[in-house]
Specification:
The complex is a heterodimer of chains A (331) and B (269). Chain A has eleven helices and 13 strands. The longest helix of chain A is centred in the middle third of the chain and has 18 residues, at 189-206. Chain A is α/β, with parallel strands linked by helices and 331 residues long. In chain A, the strands form three sheets. In chain A, strands 5-6-7-3-8-9 form a six-stranded mixed sheet, with helices on both faces. Chain B is an all-alpha fold. Chain B has one domain (2-262). Chain B contains ten helices and no strands. Chain B has helices spanning 2-15, 19-45, 57-69, 80-88, 101-130, 144-175, 179-192, 204-210, 220-227, 232-267. Chain B starts with a helix and ends with a helix. The chains are: A alpha/beta (331), B mainly alpha (269). The interface between A and B is medium-sized, with 31 and 22 residues.
């Protein structure tokens, strides 16, 4: 049996609509018009213990609605949802006892308390036995390098320091499942790497099942063996990053650094997507023309300093996927 | 239970950091205490001969100082942490913790009442006992029994004022901004708990109603036990009244919180 089972989950919101202007405001007092928004339109997936799943989608796609239902904050209209055999909103306390959540946009720590006191308090709230607490805390302090921060009040921490402390705080009770909602948002490069390294290590060492929502595709590439894409309340794609890439496009890119200024590259079977200074980026379809042939043609015609072939960046792929979603919606 | 104790302890330690606010509050409370003692002394001096006041001047002065020392127990402000969460919509995240949200909020409310009272109470008492002329001093309790019952009654007052504060916070789930209600209620609380005029000195018609409201249980009733206006024999009834209100408001608060949160989980933040 899977650890997390979601079947046909539907969640709609009623949004009060107001006509513009003063007349609209007055009318709204007497008669409100409601619009129904389908935040989740029958989504299904299953997650096995120990998986590290990326959950991505454009803003407003239903990501956080899903995470909120899974954390017991929201009740869906219909559908099945169990975590560890428990229904989050029905067995809330038993469920959250085994759950860790980190919301990048807000801290769970007590603003005015030193970090260590927030930890103590969380241990008491989650009823972690003292010996376990001391061991878990020591491990987190070690993994996240928190020792110098423990006596600092949370409000004095930098964002990166705070996120490290928040991660530790969510894990003191050794949850089976961890929800990370944009854990790297606003972090500098060093902190991002530290957070990623930690998540990976945690997943490997403790077998914690992680669901990660993010807009940072580097997070996904660095961490997730599996990516679910949600758009307009539906799961659009679910599988490895490679499979996602292949499903969207087979194109590859050839990056050429020319030896001379003022030179340009053109080829009937490739498309110039960018030309800045001496660097030209071409996209081509490997089923149409093999990379070797294209390279041979280009090197025959131009003086080349360097060249390499790569996949289009994942951002471009995701943007294309979201773009398709928009246009299919309009048609 | 230890979890709720830990919340209470941590919040009290946090609030105890605000020393400047405590000093300023203490100075104001001492100043107002002196003024009010002088006002009531003047009132008593102008009583027509033969008119019997319901409390002696000594009792009134003691009542006033108790009010100044324990003013922090008055349910007049709600806790900013809860209010902020409701305003920003993050209140739903309270549900991601393995606790009973109502008791967690009650502990937050209790810390808000207890911490400032702990800070200010003792210095004000010391001042009012030792540094004032005899006629203006805080007097001793009416009897050892009165002292014991007073201590018990203050504990119940802490519970009562905490559940009132929690209830006020919960109403914000509907009103979002608590300012209006807060303004109205804090004005009322001052009058109804006996801080402006000791309740025994009110006209009978008003007194009979106000005595039975929950606010009387936060300050007035314990003070009356202390000064002996309510004797040890009648004290049981007073304590029961405090317990009764606390239980009733706990039930009301739990019910309101449950329906407020239900709206939230059905409709989103």
């Amino acid at each position: 049996m899977s650890l997390i089972v979601v079947e046909n989950l539907v969640k709609t919101f009623k949004v009060a609509q107001r006509q513009p202007g003063l007349w609209g405001a007055v009318r709204g007092l007497i008669h409100r018009q409601h619009r129904t928004v389908h935040a989740l339109d029958g989504i299904s997936f299953a997650i096995e213990p120990g998986e590290l799943v990326g959950y991505i989608g454009p803003n407003g796609a239903g990501k956080s609605t899903t995470v909120k239902i899974l954390s017991g904050i929201l009740v869906p209209n219909s559908g099945v949802c169990t975590v560890n055999g428990r229904v989050p909103w029905k067995h809330r306390i038993a469920h959250v006892q085994r759950l860790g959540v980190v919301f990048g946009q807000r801290t769970q720590l007590w603003w005015d308390l030193p970090v260590i006191e927030s930890f103590d308090l969380l241990a008491a709230i989650y009823r972690v036995p003292p010996a376990d607490y001391r061991r878990n805390r020591a491990e987190m302090v070690d993994l996240l390098d928190l020792a110098p921060l423990l006596d600092t009040p949370v409000r004095q921490l930098s964002l990166g320091q705070r996120m490290r402390c928040d991660l530790a705080a969510a894990l003191l009770h050794r949850p089976d499942v961890l929800f990370l909602d944009e854990p790297t948002i606003g972090l500098d490069a060093v902190s991002k790497l530290a957070v990623r390294r930690f998540i990976k290590e945690l997943n490997r060492r403790q077998g914690v099942t992680v669901i990660l929502t993010t807009h940072d595709m580097d997070d996904i590439e660095a961490l997730c063996s599996r990516v679910m894409v949600i758009g307009q309340g539906k799961i659009l794609s679910d599988g490895s990053l490679e499979a996602l890439r292949r499903s969207v496009t087979s194109e590859r890119w050839l990056i050429v650094d020319l030896a001379n200024d003022g030179d340009g590259v053109s080829d009937p079977d490739a498309l110039v997507i960018e030309h800045t200074g001496r660097r030209v980026e071409l996209s081509f379809d490997p089923q149409h023309i093999s990379p070797a042939e294209l390279i041979a043609r280009v090197t025959a015609k131009h003086a080349i300093r360097d060249l390499f072939v790569q996949n289009p960046p994942i951002e471009k792929i995701i943007a294309r996927l979201y773009g398709r979603l928009e246009s299919s919606n309009q048609s | 239970m230890t979890a709720y104790g830990a919340i209470l302890g941590a919040r009290i330690r946090m609030l105890l950091q605000y020393r400047a606010a405590a000093l300023a509050g203490m100075a104001t409370q001492v100043f107002w205490g002196i003024i009010r003692v002088m006002v009531f002394t003047a009132f008593y001096a102008s009583l027509r001969p033969g008119v019997e006041a319901p409390m002696t001047l000594r009792q009134t002065v003691t009542y006033i100082w108790l009010g100044q020392a324990l003013l922090g127990l008055l349910p007049m402000r709600i806790d900013g942490e809860g209010a902020g969460m409701i305003r920003s919509g993050t209140v739903a995240y309270e549900l991601t913790r393995p606790w009973d949200v109502y008791w967690a909020w009650c502990m937050r409310a209790a810390s808000l009442r207890i911490a400032p009272t702990m800070l200010r109470c003792l210095p004000i008492v010391v001042f009012a006992v030792a540094l004032l002329p005899a006629s203006m001093r805080l007097g001793p309790p009416a009897s050892p029994a009165a002292a014991g019952l007073f201590a018990l009654s203050v504990l119940l007052a802490v519970a009562l004022t905490s559940v009132i504060t929690a209830l006020l916070t919960i109403t914000m789930l509907w009103t979002i901004s608590g300012e209006g209600l807060m303004l109205l209620l804090s004005g009322l609380a001052w009058v109804l708990s006996g801080i402006v005029i000791p309740l025994p000195l009110l006209p009978d018609a008003a007194r009979h109603v106000i005595e039975w409201l929950p606010f009387a249980g936060t300050l007035d009733l314990p003070f009356r036990i202390y000064i002996g206006q309510v004797g040890p024999g009648e004290a049981a009834g007073v304590l029961l009244r405090q317990v009764g209100w606390t239980l009733a408001l706990v039930m009301l608060g739990r019910w309101m919180l449950a329906s407020g949160l239900r709206r939230l989980v059905v409709q989103g933040g």
